[in-house]
Write a structure and sequence with these properties.
2 copies of one chain form a homodimer.
Chain A: E1 7-16, E2 19-22, H1 24-36, H2 39-45, H3 50-61, E3 69-73, E4 79-83, H4 85-107
Chain A binds a DNA duplex (30 and 30 nucleotides) through helix 3, strand 3 and strand 4.
Chain lengths: 111, 111
DNA sequence: TCGCGTTATATTTTTAAAAATATAACGAAA
DNA sequence: TTTCGTTATATTTTTAAAAATATAACGCGA
């Protein structure tokens, strides 16, 4: 280890039944939906396909009795999507964990 | 969050120049090489192809002036592979970090 | 009632990753 | 000098993931 310098990095996520439920990518998607009110716009911003975004949202929703994202089609603007209270709590919780993890990485970064 | 219980999980790894250099899979490979003295046996144990194992080792070695794995072909047993002192230090360092990370996960696991 | 932009979904195509296959090089030991 | 099991490497094949394409449903507003 004397001859190179490395840094510690990592990822955290939330699991349900040992299955990944929410990581930093999905949280970003939720936040962008919240900000734009649109799945399509959020997907475009993150350079993923609408389908991919929709699948991710459906996957997250499937873990909850109450959905995290509610969407409507038709009407003014063509449709819209909103984040529920449940979803806002989820985003906030993940940010808390993420922030603690960031501190952990700083504490343990290479010599 | 009231309606489901989740657990926190994650992964850590060492980076060099923003590139992943060593994670828990590669460490396990190094340990199995150390234990068996053979790249092939280590690969078989981890159910990966010899090529895959060899590529991983080469990749790790490329970050160091002194190699982490030294291998010889031919001779008794057909050939062998050994872990250098450099490699042993690397494995140990990763274990330390991994153990600290494990503690972090426990501290922050779901309510 | 028609157009618009979005949600929702299925299907096809493309791309990238993984696995499989093949083969040469090697040195000890029989 | 031949056999053996491994290291080392290239090439081909298979598989899985991602991307692209297509199309229907929807409801507001013009």
């Amino acid at each position: 280890m004397a001859d190179i310098s490395y840094t510690l990095n990592g990822r955290i996520w939330l699991e349900v039944n040992g299955e990944k439920m929410l990581g930093h990518g999905r949280v970003e998607l939720l936040e962008r939906i919240q900000a734009s009110g649109s799945i399509r716009q959020a997907a475009l911003q993150m350079k993923m396909s609408y389908k991919q975004a929709w699948d991710l949202i459906n996957h997250i929703n499937s873990y909850f009795e109450k959905p995290v994202v509610i969407s409507q089609r038709g009407g003014k603007g063509g449709g819209k999507a909103t984040i529920t209270e449940e979803g806002r709590k989820l985003i906030e919780k993940f940010h808390q964990l993420q922030s603690a993890f960031h501190a952990f990485l700083l504490e343990n970064k290479g010599e």
